[in-house]
Amino acid sequence: MKSHQQEELIISNMPLVKHIASKYYTSKMGMEYEDLVSYGVMGLIDATNKFDESRGVKFSTYASIRISSYIIDEIRKYSPISRMYMSKIKEYNKAVEILQNKFFRKPTIDEIANHMGVSKNEINDINVKMLDLNNVYLDNVIFDDENEVKLIDTLKEKEELSPTHLVEKDELQEIMAKAIDTLNEKDRLVLSLYYYEELTLKEIGLILGVSESRVSQLNSRAIKNLKLAMKKLKYID
Q1: Of the residues 44, 60, 84, 144, which has the fewest C-beta atoms closer than 10 A?
Q2: Is residue 177 located within the same domain as residue 198?
Q3: How far apart are the C-alpha atoms of 77 and 75, rounded to whole Å?
Q4: Do 161 and 89 belong together in one domain?
Q5: Which residues of the chain have pLDDT under 50?
Q6: What's the pLDDT at 41?
Q7: pLDDT tens digits for 83-123?
Q8: 161 — alpha (psi -120 to 50), left (phi > 0) or beta?
Q9: Which residues, 6+ apart, have CB-to-CB distance to 30 below 8 Å?
Q10: Rounded CA gap, 44 and 50, in Å?
């Protein structure tokens, strides 16, 4: 993208940055609204550098995700659940999968702790955090922060996938991006915060100014609408 085109995109999408920042901002977060706008602009610049028009996704949709990502990265510094803990939860899920395949049953807390090399108390703590996250994945896929808008299975590493599966995954990613583009703004926001940013229902509630139960309802509605959109695109029955 040429520099003048990039500059035009940044200027024309400043209202989008301010709109997204205003949705995230609350007086209790310990940050100023202008700070969120600044981080949002950084996300917008990143979006202009990485946007690929050939993927058939609107720039505003892609930019919204990058803007949100930059803003949320700062908000997460005040989050009760750190990225380190999110990594622990994923490690826990992987350990459970390995042990289930080994024993053909649900592993005990002792077995999981021994496999991970941690104490039983830490496993119990992880379980508490997972309950807080209301660990319901959308068919076990989330947004991959390393690969922009793409989606990945939470329990599989890319290296484990065959070339055929990688092609299928690319097709799914394109269909999913187009389906998300058809959703209303609130549905897109909830999906982005929950699956892409991995925020808890409580954290999303604080951002949206609603209760955890309301966030759960919004999340269920967003998933339902996303599946309906994918049906219209003839990806699922």
Answers
A1: 84
A2: yes
A3: 5
A4: no
A5: 132-169, 236
A6: 92
A7: 566 677 778 878 888 888 888 787 899 999 999 999 988 88
A8: beta
A9: 78
A10: 10
